[in-house]
Structure formats: structure tokens, C-alpha cells
Amino acid sequence: MSQFGQVSAINTSRQYSGSSVYSSHYAWRKDCTIGQTNGLSFAVSDAMGQKLRVRSPHAFATRSNRAAVPLKVVCIDYPRPELENTVNYLEAASLSSSFRNSPRPNKPLEVVIAGAGLAGLSTAKYLADAGHKPILLEARDVLGGKVAAWKDEDGDWYETGLHIFFGAYPNMQNLFGELGINDRLQWKEHSMIFAMPSKPGEFSRFDFPEILPAPLNGILAILKNNEMLTWPEKVKFAIELLPAIIGGQSYVEAQDGITVKDWMKKQGVPERVTDEVFIAMSKALNFINPDELSMQCILIALNRFLQEKHGSKMAFLDGNPPERLCMPIVDHIQSRGGEVQLNSRIQKIDLNEDGTVKSFILNNGNVIKGDAYVFATPVDILKLLLPEDWKDMPYFKKLEKLVGVPVINVHIWFDRKLKNTYDHLLFSRSPLLSVYADMSVTCKEYYSPNQSMLELVFAPAEEWISCSNEEIIDATMKELAKLFPDEIAADQSKAKILKYHVVKTPRSVYKTVPGTKPCRPLQRSPIDRFYLAGDYTKQKYLASMEGAVLSGKLCAQAIVQDYESLSARGQRKLAEATIA
């Protein structure tokens, strides 16, 4: 998730990142093919990116030995699913191609975009594809927004959040293909794996059979799982979901006004279904519990997962997001004449006498002007910088109800390789933790044969965001002791912590509580030449990476559609300046 603006996340761990837009080089080779899987091997000391710099020979003795004894590690991923023929993928591909195929502008628009998260990067990428010149401004010295990451002094990365790429992310999947980086997604087996609180150290799986189409593969996955739900509970819940499956998007949108917990009660779904499944799902989707989350959010996800064969299939990025995802987008933008500037924090939206945008004024005093302006920051930052003259306009006033939710991302490096884990995302079903993964197994760049690095989402985090890192780690260790009873103890009498990083985001994605849907703005604002992008804006996906990318495409589409009026206004301004 994200750290941003003047209310930026309190990143109390160390940060090391350069102030320029950078690139990296990765070296691994295809070594073998096992069945239908892709076998990749690399020398451990040179695995993914720069070699690790060992600063503490005592704490990192194992890692130091690793460099001294060459090892060959084979990383096995599942094949990329066949997504290209799905309706949503083709729809997303059509929108992408509309930019490449649009008439070339006689005079490209200069579009100033605030925020180099996925929404801003997406807006800039598709404007560049349409022949325009984006000028992308990022306040911090790192790309990515809610997918930002930093490298510490030992060469290890720590991220703003634990990011999963679903098959049901058609715009994101198209983006990877357009950039030629499909091979950077590490696809996992088609399963959802939940910890069993009543049986510490054990897991329950929902396995989606590859031979069946949707929704049959999802239905069978649910029916075959007997640890979490009884047959009567499965049947009752399935019956109540039928209207969502049959009614589609219109039914889903109508459920915005009710919480998950209240919807379940209203439908007569046993409370145990919520406890067993939807607490974990709510926290994974929006970092809050079912008594707060809008049922619409759950139904959007279920619709995608049940209606698309590979919708719930998950992939991990093969390394840190700024280099492995954001930099290819920056390279694409720059290759088409666009600009990307880091350390360019906006201090003020300066207005003309008629209330339209005159320029963006930066903290360093620089004034940035363009033919159009886009705010692609989190909604909380936009509200902080909103000009007084705009605040009473209904379009902007509704934003008051959209508030970012706090979340904490925790990384813990242990002195040993933990055994009770999977090469997959895991739902903890803990009261304090949402999802987690052993990144030393799931991600090539973070691979280690001797030590586990757990990345965990600490949520709900509202009561913990002001706590010290030590308090958060102590609470996390108590929960991990339940997930790894044979390997982890709260007092570290078993596995010992080598180091940790805690990344706090006081305002992440907008809190999807009942009644927020009508408050989400369209990308084209009522202010001439001013547009919005961000996962909080109106688009059919969740507050997610997919939603951010789609919002950027819709924003770029609105600007391209407005080209004639934007270009004419620019010419009038030029003529007036010449006469003056």
C-alpha cells in the first residue's frame, strides 16, 4: 500500500533509495523444463539484481557462508494461464489499442500528472501511446505509490504492501503484455490456502481444478473443502450467492449500502460462514472487518473469481515493484517523448481568474504548466491540496466521505528456513494479521535457501498505526507462534529474528464502507482541463492495482476525447500572449 504527501506514512525503518529514475539488470537462465512448469536456475550470490552487501557478519553469518559456497537453486513456477480469450481481457485490450490507433495529434498536448503510482504511470503511458507528452511528477524519490519499495543497507528490499496479481486483472495483464514483461509474473498453483486457528500449524485449501470451466471449478473447490464449512453451510451460502451470479453487475452495485456482516444476516447465512471465510477475505480486500466492509466489495471479487476460470489464480512479481514493474512503464513513457520527474512535490494548485488550473507550483518553487492537468495521488492528498474555490462544488464535496484506511506491512527475516509454509499467498485468519507469504520462497529476487523472510499485512491497523515498531513486532510474533507452533515462539526461543522492517501507511486505499460508491468521482472533473486518476475514482474494479491501472486508462481516454477543445484553448492562450 501507499505512503504519500504531507501525511506520508511514518516509515520508521531505514530507507535507502536514489533520487533519480533508475534501472536494474537481472541475470538468470532458463535451465530446464519439468512437465508443464518453467524451470529457472541462477547462481545464488548473483540472484536478481545487485549482490547483497553484508554489513553485520555475526547476524548474517549464514548469508555470508552462502556467498562462499556456490549453490544452484531451481525455481519452479506454474505456466501463465490462458487469459487472452476472456471477455474482460479482450475489452481491456480494445481500450489499450484505441490509444495506439487514435489519430496522431497535430500538436501533442502537454499533460502534467501529479503522482507516479500505478494510476499516474498508467495515465502517462496511454497518453504517450496516443501521441501526447505526459509530464509525470512524483513527490518522493521512489516510483510506485502504493507499490513503492526500498532497499536497505544489506541489499534487501522491503515493500509498502504484499502485492498479488490475479488472473481477474485484465488491464494489469494487458499492461504486462504491452510492455513485454509477462515473464516477470510468477504464477502459483490455482488454490486459496487458509490457516486453521483451531488447529495451529495446519491449513485448509480450496483447489480449483484446471479441467473445469468457471464457475464449476470454483464450485467444486468449495464443495471439496470440508475443514472450513459444513455441507449445510455450503448449500445455504451457494443459494444466497445465486442472485449475484445471475444478476451480474447491477445486483452487485445495489449492495453498496449494506455491510458484509449485515448482508449475511439478512440472507440467513450462518454466522460461522462469515467467521470462517469472510473475515479473512474482507481484511485481504480492504484491510477492515466484515462489520465495516460494503458487501459490494466482496461481490465484485466473487463475481470475477466465479465467472472467470483463472480469475482467482494468483501471481507474484519476480522482484521489487519499482524496478520490475514501474521502470518498464517509465522507459516506455520516455521512449515516446514523455518526462518523469522524482522529488517533485506539489505545494499548490494555482488557479486562473476563471477558476481553472494555471499551473502546479512545486515545493522547490518551480512552476509547471501544461495543456491539461491530472491529479493521480491518493484521495487524501487531493483533499489536502484542493483549492478553496473548488471545495463546495458537489463533485469535490463528495470526496469528504472517501477516507484512506490505515495499514501496516511487516517484514521479518529469520535465522532459519521455516518449513510450515507454501510457495503461495496464505490467509492467516488471525485477528491481527491479514495475508502473508514467505517471500524467500515465492519471489525470485528475494530467494534465500537458508533463511525465511515473511512479509505480512497487519490489519485492521487503526488501533496500531501509532504504536512503536517493537510493539507491532511483538504482537506479530505472538500470532506467528500460532501459525508456526513448532518453529516460532513469541520469545524467540525457537526461530530468531535477524532484522525487520515495518512500513506504516496511515492512509492507504479508500475505506470501502457502505454508501461510498456514489462518492467516487468520474475521471473528467467539472473544472476545464483538470482530471483525476486513482483507484478511488469511478471504475468497475476494487480499490486495487487493477482499479488504479484502469482509472489511468479512463483518464487518458477522457483527455484524448477532449483533444480538440484542449488544443483550441491552448491556441487561444498562445494568441492572447502574443498580442499582449
Automatic annotation (TrEMBL):
Membrane topology, from the record: Peripheral membrane protein
One GO CC term on file: membrane
Binding-site residues for FAD, renumbered to this chain: E138, A139
Catalytic activity, reaction form: 2 a plastoquinone + 15-cis-phytoene = 9,9',15-tri-cis-zeta-carotene + 2 a plastoquinol
UniProt-recorded Gene Ontology molecular function terms: phytoene dehydrogenase activity
Alphabetical list of NCBIfam families matching this protein: phytoene_desat (TIGR02731)
Name of the molecule in the record: Phytoene dehydrogenase
Species classification: Eukaryota, Viridiplantae, Streptophyta, Embryophyta, Tracheophyta
